[in-house]
Design a protein that fits this description.
This protein is α+β, with helices and mostly antiparallel strands and about 100 residues long. About 30% of the residues lie in helices and about 20% in strands. A 4-stranded antiparallel beta sheet has the order 1-2-3-4, covered by helices on one side.
């Protein structure tokens, strides 16, 4: 979470996002927060209790307001892997 939130636009941010996704966290495009299913809930990302990472308090917190609109705001794996990071190599010499 630290790398994702503290290195915006860096290739490391994208790599952190991929790692979080692989660990069953999903990024919400509107809320700009990471969510995962609460322990004991059914697999998949449908209705149910979620946990989000609260960047204000730097801890996991429960989230119980999941509905269809919420689910639609979660970034898909295809969207994540298609993300473009601005080139960091503009000042790098090829010599």
């Amino acid at each position: 979470f630290y790398v994702f939130y503290n290195m915006p636009g860096d290739v490391l941010q994208l790599l952190a996002a991929i790692e979080l996704y692989d660990r069953e966290w999903r990024y919400h495009k509107d809320l700009k927060l990471w969510f995962t299913r609460a322990p004991g809930t059914a697999p998949g990302f449908e209705r149910g209790a979620y946990i989000y990472f609260d960047i204000s308090h730097w801890e996991r917190r429960p989230f119980h307001d999941a509905n269809q609109k919420f689910i639609q705001g979660l970034m898909t794996e295809d969207e994540l892997r298609a993300a473009r990071i601005p080139s960091q190599a503009s000042g790098v010499s090829s010599a």
